[in-house]
Amino acid sequence: MKMIKKMLAFSLAAVMAGSCLASCGSTDSSKSGTEGESGDKTIIIGGSGPLTGGAAQYGVGVKNAVELAVKDVNDSGMLGDIKLSVVFEDDEADPADKAVNAYNSLKDKNMDIMIGTVTSGSCLAVIDQTKADNIFQITPSASAQDVIRNDNCFQVCFTDPNQGKASADYIADNNVAKKVAVIYDSSDAYSSGIFNTFKSEAAAKGLEVVSEGAFTKDSKTDFSAQIADAKNKGAELVFLPIYYTEASLILSQANSAGYAPIFFGCDGLDGILSVENFDTKLAEGVMLLTPFAADATDDATKKFVEAYKAAYNGEIPNQFAADAYDCVQIVAKLIKQEGVTADMSASDMCDKLKAAISNGFSYDGLTGNGMTWTAEGAVSKNPKAVVIKDGAYSALQ
Fold it and tell me: Structural domain tally of the chain?
C-alpha cells in the first residue's frame, strides 16, 4: 500500500512538473513537507500526544525528544541511506475523539511506525486500530496495563502495576513512613491502576493505608475533603499516583490547611515544577519514582540534557522526553538489526519488529540499562527515586 501511494505521488508530481524535471535532470521522488525528504529511503515515524491543554508538558517533551532522536539517528548514519522522518499530531490527551482523529491524520501522512500515544487514555482509544492496521507501536509513557493487550504494542515506560509496587516497596524498604494516605483519580486508568497495586503491596509490606481519597475528572479542583481526612487520620505520607496539575493543587491546598506530610508520587508528577502560577517552594521535598533524573552524572544523560537544552531554549528534559528519545533509538536499532527497508509496507515492518523486540533484544538507554521486553509488551528496567531539592529534581540513592 505504501509503495502504491508513493508511485501515485511520483506520477502526479511528474505530470505537474514535467518540463522542469527534464530541464533540471531530476529523478527525485521525494515526498514533500513533513512526510519525508528522500522518497523510498524514508521511514516515517508518527506520534501523537497533548501539545495543548493541561498535560501539554508531557506531549511537548515527547515531541521534542522524538525530533531530537531522529536527527541524531540520521546524523549518525547508523541506518545507511535510510532516513527517519517525523509527523506528530496534537491529541490534547482526549481519548473521546481527538486521539482517534490524530491517529487517522498520521495514517493519511503515510506513518510507518508509531511512537505513542503519550497518555494512557488516548493510547487505549487507538490500540485496536493500530492492531487492525498492523502498525508497530511503542509508547514512551502510556503506562496502563491494557495498552499492551495487543501483540503490536510495546511500552518503554513502567506499567501502572509496576509503579504501584515499586512505590510501596521504596517507602517500606527505606522507612520513609508507616501511615500512608492516598489521593487518586478513580476515573483515570493510569491513577487507578497504580493505586490498586500500591494498596496491595503496601499491606504486604506492613504499611498502613489510613485514608483513601478518590476524585474524578469532574471533581479535580477541590481536594479539601481528601486532605482533611488524611490529616485527621495521622498520615505521615500522602501517595499521589496522579498527574502534576492536580498534584500542584493538592500541595497548595494542603499548605493552606496547615498539613505538611511527605508527598510521594510516580512519573505523573514529573512536570510539577513548571505549572503556571504554582509556588514551587511547596514542592520542596516531594519524592517520586521515575526512570530518569536529569542531574544524573553518566555521560549519556549529560549529553542528552545538553543537546536538549541547546535545541529547546535551555529547557531541561523530563522523563517523558527521555523515554521518547529511547523509543526512537530502540526503533532505529531494531530497524538496523532486522534489515527493515523503507520500501516495505508498514505491516511488513511491524511483523519484523514485533517478533524481534521480545526475542532476546536488549537496549541500554537513558531510562535504563539492559532493557528487555516480554512477549506481552512490558519493559523490564529499574526505576530511580528522585526528590525535589532547591527547585530541581535530584537523584536519591
Answer: 2
Q: What SS3 state is found at 107?
A: helix
Tens of pLDDT along 160-180?
888 899 999 999 999 999 999
Q: Give start and end residues of each alpha helix (H) in 206-345.
A: 224-232, 244-256, 299-311, 319-338
* pLDDT value for 6: 42
CA distance 291 to 273: 18
CA distance 204 to 357: 33
**pLDDT tens digits along 17-76:** 443 333 333 323 334 334 444 456 999 999 999 999 988 999 999 999 999 999 999 999
Cβ contact 215:223 at 8 Å: yes
CATH of the domain at 315: 3.40.50.2300
Same domain flag for 166 and 274? yes
**Three cell numbers at 255?**
499548605
Backbone torsions φ then ψ of 340, nearest 5 degrees: -70, 135
